[in-house]
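Note to self: keep these together.
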Amino acid sequence: MNSLDPSQMTPYGIIIPLSLACIFVAFLIACTILTLIVCTKRLHTVTHLLICNGSIALIFYCFVQSINYIHLAFMSWETNDSLCRWRGFFGYMTVVATIYSYLIQAISRFFISILGIRHRWVKSFKTHFILISIHWSLAVLLPLPALLTEDIYHRPNALCWVPKDYTLHVAYTVIAYYLIPTIIIFILYIVIFCRVKRRNLSIFVRRRKARSNRDLDLLYNIMILFSIYILGALPIILFVLTKNDVFYSIGIISVSLALAVEKGVTLIIDRDIRNTIRFYLQKTVVQVGPSIRSIS
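Structure:
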């Protein structure tokens, strides 16, 4: 979210440790989700395939942003503009990958809930692998202006983002990275909600009410998780509107915190993942119990 020029007075000595702590927590939770999905056969569904893809995007985000923060804190002697542009490119790439992972989940839910009734192929793994391919292609293509222009350059005590003086480039990042996917996600949410509710009035769909309710539950989950991320980005939006660097400082932490919270909430609201965790915990307790009794 950090697409603007930070103030030279930004307290990175406080911000960087807090952001890295949030990133570390998000990284651990994302790795946990990824491991659960890969190792649990009943989680091998198209829905969890996209959750897995989102976790990979978040792990990539954690890795790149950690490098950027560590470079800013400990490698101030490195002043090459080209390397700064590459760091900015990968930073924006991880932001796009994270946000657009929510978008392809919403598109998948649209395919399954609306189009899947007549076109069963849209529910297939092949279709979802194509969605993932498009997702990562956009993650590479959309941030290319960071490399193709010289708007990003080394600035002492500043992250390698587009300075706020480059209004056109800043507007592009806000619109392409955040505004467009957000609008599409909310449109898909409204369309799916209205169509599913309308279908529930028919006799045919009453027999499928449980499936319709599950579709809505999954969509609610996507919206909850995406809303957490958007709330985390709110300070940066306020910075864009007010030019107050305090919001920028808060925003760096809040985005990382939102990602950690979002992944934590995923463990709670995803019923299949929650039940899988409960199963493994109960299995561990059963195995540990006899061992303790035998020792005593």
